């Protein structure tokens, strides 16, 4: 334990221009920094885990472009500290955020960085998910700001990964045989008709296995699982890599309203001392991590 979430934020496109990963991730990151009231210069490492990008861009690393957008360590002469402003992409589909948490734990444990920013943004290659009825995901970004806590009992526990013993029923790829001159603005996402039910069952098994390994009482734990919708997105699509960020914000919002006894659209029926993050996606693969907020 020891690495806690100090702030989180999401961002949606404003539709005045085609959606951009760099813009959305940058806005989510700046939102998290503003909530934490810390400057961009305090970020030691940025990890970007988004998968789908405008124009199917893969080089240069999107993390470097997001770093520039947020304004993290843009002058290496003024700030030559090697641990300041280091950024990289880490892609593992829907499990990317928890992969980044696992890397962040190692970085903080070794003293390589003091504050970590995770960005997760996906946009349709054509810049508008609403314009492609066969594309299932929303244009959406999320950001988590992480740092070490003085409370040894707070923060993330171990991250565990699970794989199923069957072929994947979810694939996203660029179909080079049919893309023609529109290849930069198209993507093919193939999902079997019952994929949602099968992934949900796999996520439940992964959560149960994690709970058994670490002796967790799931009746006393709020499970933050894969989201099927994003606030404000409407019928645009499902959250993808930003889903854990969205789930965390919903959970914390529910906890706050439960504690304050205020009305809320999705109130929790009780306060929870710990959360279990569960992500699941193509592979099929799943990832789980226990999280205890500070002061609970």
From TrEMBL:
Instruction: Name the domain of life this protein comes from.
Output: Bacteria
**Record PANTHER family:** 3-OXOACYL-[ACYL-CARRIER-PROTEIN] SYNTHASE 3, BETA-KETOACYL-[ACYL-CARRIER-PROTEIN] SYNTHASE III
The identity of this protein, by name, is Beta-ketoacyl-[acyl-carrier-protein] synthase III N-terminal domain-containing protein
Natural source organism: Streptomyces virginiae
